[in-house]
Amino acid sequence: MTPQQLENFQTVLDSSSSAPMYLQVSQGLQRLIQQNTFPQGSALPGERDLAAMLGVSRVTVRQALRLLEEQGYLIRRQGSGTFVAPRRIVQPLSALTGFSEDMRSRGLTPGGRVLSLERTRPSPQEAMNLGVSPSSEVLRLRRLRTADAVPLAIETSTLPLELVGPLTIPEVENRSLYSRLRERGLEPDRALQHLRATAADLEAAELLDVEIGSALLATERVTWAASGRTLEYARSLYRGDRYDFIVQLTH
């Protein structure tokens, strides 16, 4: 622990507060994490050391750490210690944005790689969602998406070839698909998205760097262009430990 981190620990507790001690410890540590006193992935001192620094019992520290873990601020690894969890991505479901635009708006660098790009016939599910004939041709683009080089999602986008025209890997490798479509006069206008929970199989676990069986968020989205034509049918898998989807409700 650096001298600065040690000094900042003195601000964790508020002697004038009537809040339970474990809650004060939890809120104080949360502030230090949000202020980047403890960056993502960094280790916190052990329970015994924290208790001594703060002048509280180990039971109080244990309660505070458990609360922070439940809130997603900490990860506790058996035999290794307690670490600051990676920052979660909060994704509003009311906004129609592509992955690249969304990551840049958060100050993150989008990236990834193309897993496959093929010109083919649509599956029955793709044909139904795109509203195209089973004998028509589509482009099926599968990509691993990253933010600041951390794998976050696997995306499969299927587009009607007759509408969007051909695409090449250099056009979509580490680049926004939606920006390529806008260059062709195809503006994504509205979408319908379904969300469900799933678990990582072997392939998804390897690509997303998570354990097999880890919680994932699966989405299916149909996007329409401003002209009313169906532009894209997309299926995605997002890391459950890095993503929160939120919806704003109004009365």
Tell me what the structure shows.
- The chain is elongated.
- The protein has two domains: 3-84, Arc Repressor Mutant, subunit A; 89-246, Chorismate lyase-like (Chorismate lyase), CATH 3.40.1410.10.
- With 251 residues, it is an alpha+beta fold.
- The mean pLDDT is 83.
- The N and C termini lie far apart (49 Å).
- The protein is built from ten helices and ten strands.
- It has helices at residues 3-9, 21-34, 47-54, 58-70, 99-105, 124-130, 161-164, 169-172, 177-183, 202-208; strands spanning 74-77, 81-84, 89-92, 110-120, 138-147, 150-160, 188-199, 215-225, 230-239, 243-246.
- Strands 4-5-6-9-8-7 form a six-stranded antiparallel sheet.
- This is GntR family transcriptional regulator.
What's the short version?
With 251 residues, the protein is α+β, with helices and mostly antiparallel strands. The protein has 2 domains: 3-84, Arc Repressor Mutant, subunit A (Orthogonal Bundle), CATH 1.10.10.10; 89-246, Chorismate lyase. It is 31% helix and 32% strand.
Key structural traits:
251 residues, alpha+beta, Chorismate lyase, 2 domains, six-stranded antiparallel sheet, 10 strands, Bact_HTH_transcr_reg, DNA-binding transcription factor activity, transcription regulation
Rg, alpha carbons: 23 Å
The CATH class of the largest domain, by name, is Alpha Beta
Task: Sum up the overall morphology in one term.
Answer: elongated
Specify the CATH architecture of the largest domain: 3-Layer(aba) Sandwich
CATH superfamily of the largest domain: Chorismate lyase-like
Looking at CATH, which topology of the largest domain would you report?
Chorismate lyase
Number of strands: 10
Count of individual domains = 2
Q: Order of strands across the widest beta sheet?
A: 4-5-6-9-8-7
Keywords: DNA-binding, Transcription, Transcription regulation
Protein name: GntR family transcriptional regulator
Organism: Deinobacterium chartae
InterPro entries: Bact_HTH_transcr_reg, Chorismate_lyase_/UTRA_dom_sf, Tscrpt_reg_HTH_GntR, UTRA, WH-like_DNA-bd_sf, WH_DNA-bd_sf
